[in-house]
Amino acid sequence: METQIGDIVLIHRKQEPVAYARVEEILADIKPGWWQIRLLVLHPPAQEATWILREEYIDGDEFSMGGEAMRLERLAPPQPSQPHGGEPEPEPDAGPQDQGGGKVVSLSRRRPKS
Q1: Quick one: where's region Disordered (predicted)?
Q2: Is 59 domain-assigned?
């Protein structure tokens, strides 16, 4: 199964995207070959839903629900942006430590020079 707990999926209804959801839990159903997938639907008001689906439906194959075509599309996690036209940002100089043990980074060094 490609889709895992914590993944964000886009829910399609009738080939139209309708809402995003986070996969909260995937459990084997009592029926062999079926899974209970608990989703936190991220469309106001946020609510939980549990759907019983086959593995291929969880991973993006089309299924029907109430006579309507449905599909889950797993979204890739966002990639960190790279400033300066794709060049990796230089590592900040080792600076003083704050009282909590973390590194203090100067924001003035990060500002673009005009």
Answers
A1: 68-114
A2: yes
